Amino acid sequence: MTEASPARNVFFVGVDVDSMGGSQRVLHTLAQGMGERGHRVELIGIRPSAEPFPYNTTRAYRHATLYPPSPEPKPPVRTVGDRLSLARRADARRARAAREHARAEMQRRLSSVEDGYIVFGSPWAADWVMPLEWQHLKGIGQYHESFAQARRSANLGLIRRHYPALEQTLVLSQGDAVEFVNQRVPNVRVMPNPLPFYPDESAPLDTRKIGAVGRLDPIKRYDRLIEAFARAREGREGWELHLFGDGPLENELRMKAEDLGVADQVVLRGTVKDMAAAYRELSVVAISSEREGRPMALAEAAACGVPCVSFDVSGGVRELVDDGVTGTLVPPADVPGLAAAFGELMDDAGLRQRYGAAGREHVARLSLPSVLDRWDSVFAEIER
Fold first, then answer.
1. Structure pTM?
2. Are residues 154 and 218 in the same domain?
3. For residue 308, is pLDDT > 70?
4. What ranges in 111-210 are assigned the alpha helix state H?
5. CATH code where residue 305 lies
6. How confident is the model at residue 72 (pLDDT cuts 50, 70, 90)?
7. Given pLDDT bands bounded at 50, 70 and 90, which one contains residue 358?
8. Does one domain contain both 334 and 372?
9. What are the strands, taking DSSP E only, across 192-287?
10. Are 189 and 319 found together in one domain?
11. Above 90 in pLDDT, residue 51?
12. In terms of domains, do 179 and 257 share one?
């Protein structure tokens, strides 16, 4: 930590901070980096993750989860008798007690310091914390998705309700900043997500593997990714598609690959602890989502020198992929276009190397020390 950056108390708060995901990785990366700089940092998850990922096994920050692990799901309520049953009423009492305990524990933690910052990792986290007493802290609201995603969900309403009361609102791209200002959200500035790693060497890009990183959820549209891969693979032997992450669509995606005749070439890798090593296995990284904010997979892949192919679904994606320089952008949902982009990179090792080298240079500004310097500047500006 520089001389101009005194130690501060910093609370990062999210709803689920431990699942495998881009926003969760960002919170742990920031908490670790600030802790190593000497700030007193606590990362608090409101609800536990069903599938916690082991971020930062050696931590420079405290970590807590407010709610206990969820019990086994109960059968659905089908009749009035079910609703009024003693067991259901007991469950409702336990749920209220868990909520009261979680809020009391959060209040205790916030009251344990005289000053500092509370950083809301999402508008839902802000909504949960707002009724508590935390006014002795300075509030900062993050948003890890695009403005377009916020507008299509309840997030925009929550941001407009809560974030104007905070000292600062941090978004991922300049275009999103303009849109939120137009929605009368003041004090908006751009804050990129930091890279959790920046390896000394680039990936070799000779493995004939295309990869995607993220939960196997509907929003990722891995069905389109598998279809594009199946098209691109025709006449190109030896290539595989590797999916890193767990999720509810695993069986469905396996069947999709089987239906398209690529079951042996689509490899579901599950959760991987060493993501830097996983990226080094790949020759191309792909994003096929319906929507994204500023997907960390694109930045992390570029840091490893891996070229990216993505649907052009947000300003954040466009800032991370310089089309025709570091990778290829394809119109949203254009599966044939995605397949053609794959084919071009599959056929041209020199192009993969050029895109990969340019990508590393493009995201160097997102190294953790650079982003932490920007956070310290935000703190200093708020305190002036």
1. 0.80
2. no
3. yes
4. 123-129, 147-151, 155-162, 174-182
5. 3.40.50.2000
6. low
7. very high
8. no
9. 209-213, 240-244, 266-270, 284-287
10. no
11. no
12. no
Tally of residues, the chain: 384
Residue 78: predicted pLDDT: 66
Determine the 3-state secondary structure of 203 from DSSP.
Answer: coil
Asked, for residue 204, whether it belongs to a domain, the answer is no
Q: Give the C-alpha separation, 242 to 42, whole Å.
A: 35
Both tokens of residue 357? 């080298």
Q: 195 near 367, Cβ under 8 Å?
A: yes
- pLDDT score at 84: 63
Does 103 fall in a domain? yes
What is the end-to-end Cα distance of the chain in Å, rounded?
Answer: 19
- Nearest CA among 22, 15, 3 for reference residue 314: 22
Environment class of 250 (CB within 10 Å of its CB; exposed 0-12, middle 13-18, buried 19+): middle
Number of domains in the chain: 2
For residue 263, the Cα-to-chain-centroid distance in whole angstroms is 28
Q: Is residue 201 part of a domain?
A: no
**What angle separates helix 296-303 from helix 349-363, to the nearest 10 degrees?**
110
**Distance from C-alpha of 293 to C-alpha of 380, rounded to nearest angstrom:** 27
Q: Domain limits at 251?
A: 209-365
